[in-house]
Each structure stands twice: as C-alpha cells, then as structure tokens.
Request: fold
Amino acid sequence: MSVIDEILWLLRNGKWHELEEIREKIALSKFKVEIAVNFLSEYNFIQLKEKTRRVRLQPLIFEFIKKIQRIEKEELSH
Reply:
C-alpha cells in the first residue's frame, strides 16, 4: 500500500487526526508524511490545520469513500 493510500485509510472515519498519530501508525519519517499530507491538501483530498497540525478528509471525499464502502458491502452480500 502506498503512503497516500495508508493516510487515506487512516482518515476514513472523517475525524481529525494529528500528524504525529499518522506518522506513528504508518511508521514513516516525519518528512515523508508531511510530503504526502501536503500533496493531499494541495489537491483537496484532505483539510489541513497548519497551526494544530491536524488533518481530516474533505467532506466530499469522505462521502465518496462512504458510498464506495456501501457499494462494496452490498456486492459482497449478493
């Protein structure tokens, strides 16, 4: 799984997460996590609070992921 995928996976609950928490969970350097987070923020996949160093999925991305999960769940149950 790529760093981007791992970050998006961690953020899938739609809540705010600290960058340090993300770094610890995916076991990468602060530098690599910040590069990935800056990319995701620049392309509006996530919201980044610079002062508190917290991130979460953009609401539209969060809703998109929830819909995909529902569809996948329905497909598995058939």
About this structure: Residues 46 and 57 are 4 Å apart (CA to CA).
